[in-house]
Automatic annotation (TrEMBL):
GO terms for biological process: transmembrane transport. This is Putative calcium/sodium:proton antiporter. The keyword Transferase does not apply. Residues 165-190 are annotated as: Disordered. Its main location: membrane. Gene3D superfamilies: NCX, central ion-binding region (1.20.1420.30). The keyword Transmembrane helix applies. Keywords: Membrane, Transmembrane, Transmembrane helix. The chain crosses the membrane at residues 6-26, 46-68, 74-92, 112-131, 137-157, 196-215, 227-249, 256-274, 294-312. One of its GO terms (cellular component) is membrane. It comes from Roseivivax jejudonensis.
Length: 342
């Protein structure tokens, strides 16, 4: 579709698609908060399931489109690069939350469980990469395991939210998940839900355009698929998570902010499942490059550090942010240096 466009127009189309995705995500954040309150789902669960999945749609479209075109590295690096970028966004949001360390203030058992779930889901592709090159109907068994694990994790996350077996210690800096102040507590969720679906459609269409533009960048500028996937399309399609996180923090919906990132990353692991199904030349896990695996390890390491921060709940660290945020920034900067210098 974009093959006949000149370079300036190609960049303009890429920018417009990215802007459409970001603007749609801003409105989606406010709607997700309303949906969380009216359905009694809670901010952490709404962030992880509703908002996280919706804002990840553009990214999954990129990975599937890349896999269909036969570029396994592009599809894989877009998925794992997005997970690393989105975790970095949470560290940046911590900088902007001046009152206390964001991970301290947003204490929520559901977020802890989803972080554990994300580590499990990121570990499974490592098993596939180091195991035998097998595929049934073009799909690796680990892809099936990841999908089943995701569904089980979602169900267990809901259980953790509804019937937590422990609760975090409340401090003066802990922000509670409070429903909207509404004189009509029984207002219908239908209107916000329909608007939300429309915004999701816009984000999906934007993701397809971004994918096509990324393919043109690889072809016209002779860039590596790993570079474009992990640092260009992954970051651009992750901007909704960045915007929604900043908006949520500004609104005081801290559990929604943290849950949106962790839940979005958890959903992003399904990019690999979708990419494996779409990739028709065997298992996608055995068609990737070394740099792609490095970004997978980076995402796994950053998630482990984030989980440690959520458990430690340091009130105030260097520069008024948690030590986990400092470490996540350092890990991402190292990965960026390795990718660019490769």
């Amino acid at each position: 579709m974009l093959t006949g466009l000149s370079i300036p127009i190609l960049f303009a189309v890429f920018g417009l698609a990215g802007a459409a995705v970001v603007l749609a995500s801003i409105r989606a954040t406010a709607l997700a908060d309303v949906i969380a309150d009216r359905t009694k789902l809670g901010e952490a669960m709404a962030g992880g399931l509703v908002l996280g999945a919706a804002t990840s749609l553009a990214g999954v479209v990129v990975s599937v489109d890349a896999a269909l075109s036969g570029d396994a590295s592009y599809a894989f690096s877009n998925a794992v690069g997005g997970i690393a970028a989105q975790t970095l966004f949470l560290a940046i949001a911590d900088l902007l939350h001046k009152r206390a360390n964001l991970e301290h203030a947003a204490a929520e058992p559901a977020n802890l469980f989803q972080a554990v779930m994300l580590i499990i889901l990121l570990s499974l592709p490592l098993c596939a990469l180091s195991g035998p090159d097998v595929a049934y109907f073009g799909v690796h068994p680990v892809s099936i395991a990841m999908f089943v694990a995701y569904l089980a994790g979602v169900q267990l996350s809901s259980s953790v939210k509804e019937n937590p077996m422990w609760r975090p210690v409340r401090t003066s800096d802990t922000r509670r998940d409070q429903p909207e102040d509404d004189d009509e507590p029984d207002r219908s969720v239908k209107g916000p839900a329909l608007q939300f679906v429309g915004l999701v459609a816009i984000m999906g269409a934007g993701g397809w355009v971004i994918s096509q533009a990324g393919g043109q960048f690889i072809e016209r500028f002779s860039l590596s698929s790993s570079l474009v996937g992990s640092l260009i399309t992954a970051v651009v399609t992750s901007l909704p998570e960045f915007v929604t996180t900043l908006v949520a923090v500004r609104r005081g919906a801290l559990q929604l902010a943290v849950g949106g990132i962790i839940g979005g990353n958890t959903f992003d692991t399904l990019f690999l499942v979708a990419g494996d199904i779409a990739y028709r030349d065997g298992s996608i896990f055995h068609a990737v490059e070394g740099n792609d695996v490095y970004w997978l390890g980076t995402g796994l390491l950053m998630t482990a550090v984030l989980l440690a921060g959520l458990i430690l709940r340091q009130r105030e660290g260097p520069g008024r942010i948690g030590i986990e945020s400092v470490l996540m920034m350092g890990i991402y900067a190292t990965a960026l240096t390795v990718e660019v210098s490769a």
